[in-house]
UniProtKB/TrEMBL annotation:
This is RimK-like ATP-grasp domain-containing protein. The keyword ATP-binding applies. GO terms for biological process: SOS response. Keywords: ATP-binding, Nucleotide-binding. GO terms for cellular component: cytoplasm. InterPro entries: ATP-grasp (IPR011761), ATP-grasp_RimK-type (IPR013651), MvdD-like_ATPgrasp (IPR048936). It comes from Rivibacter subsaxonicus. Residues 129-311 form the ATP-grasp domain.
Length: 317
């Protein structure tokens, strides 16, 4: 059986589960937001090297030994909301829940897209840049700092109007787009002492590139962001940006696959920019990046590729 760790509202999870159902593959969705209040977990060790891991408190529970492939698809966090009220008690309950789950994921013998610990490490933007540079991918000049003076020196060297800044993370509730540093923001650089910020030289581009990687398969797509109303961050006007499938130079493809291998990922959504001279600049990789907006405009069979990879490793092919 294939286990999908996600939630019912995730249309990406639903898209792949529909494809798996069409193939006649047994699949089950696990929503971790139901843990621990509405979802039980038992991890048993017999003292002689044997173990059994079950979600559920009766014989109808989910046996993780039955799962040959597991898709870690933006799972929801455990919750004790509504029943545990004291902040200290909430913290303790959630900390214990996370500790049990992290140990469980490390213990399950299955094929993962992506294994949770590797997924978490691969999401670190500083590590992505370091590893991509070692592999030989071209990167923007970058400064990550919480030192106001270091930021001023970087801006002075690269030039105002040539530097973007971005956060390490963003959520639907707290969105942070990539922006060019403006002159009227220079007096706010002292605020860096509260948290580090990523500064990078702005890369002039003909197109943005989203390269979705599934196993050894690459699905490169060009996003014509420079024809949109916000040329700095294609996400801000994605509904009107033209997207089409493209090809990549063989050496760039090889380096991206090497990056995936070194990060230990089976899936990743990579963002790059293609300069007017045809060169390619690596920006970042999202181990759980979205792809339906690419698939719908290009026809690239990304959902089917994910379903096929899960099915093949689960043994239901």
């Amino acid at each position: 059986m294939i286990l999908v760790i996600s939630h019912h509202r995730d249309e990406h999870a639903q898209s792949v589960m529909v494809e798996l159902s069409r193939r006649g593959v047994a699949t089950r969705l696990l929503d971790l937001s139901r843990f621990p209040l509405q979802l039980g977990l038992s991890m048993r060790y017999d003292g002689h090297g044997g173990s059994r891991f079950v979600f559920g408190c009766d014989d109808s529970g989910l046996e993780l030994d039955d799962c040959g492939a597991i898709w870690w698809r933006r799972p929801q966090p455990p919750s004790v909301e509504g029943e545990v009220h004291r902040p200290a008690h909430q913290h303790f309950a959630l900390s214990e829940s996370h500790e049990a789950l992290h140990g469980l994921w490390q213990s399950v013998d299955a094929f993962w897209i992506n294994e949770p610990a590797r997924d978490a490490v691969a999401a670190r933007k500083a590590w992505q840049l370091e590893l991509a540079g070692r592999i030989g991918l071209e990167l923007p000049q970058t400064l990550i700092t919480n030192c106001p003076q270091a930021a001023r020196e970087f801006l002075g060297r690269v030039g105002l109007g040539n530097v973007i800044y971005k956060a390490f993370s963003a959520t639907e509730q707290d969105w942070r787009e990539t922006r060019l540093v403006r002159a009227d923001e220079l007096d706010r650089l002292d605020n860096l002492r509260y948290a580090p910020v990523i500064f990078q030289r702005y890369i002039e581009a003909t197109v943005d590139l989203r390269i979705t990687v599934v196993g050894e398969r690459l699905f490169p797509a060009a996003i014509h962001s420079q024809d949109s109303d916000y040329k700095i961050d294609f996400r801000m006007d994605i509904g009107r940006a033209r997207i089409e499938p493209v090809s990549l130079p063989a050496d760039v493809e090889a380096k991206l696959l090497e990056l995936m291998r070194r990060l230990g990922l089976a899936y990743g959504a990579i963002d790059m920019r293609r300069r007017p001279d045809g060169s390619h600049v690596f920006l970042e990789i999202n181990p759980a990046g979205q792809w339906l907006f690419i698939e719908r405009q290009t026809g690239q069979p990304i959902s089917a590729a994910l379903a096929e990879l899960l099915q093949r490793h689960d043994g239901q092919a």
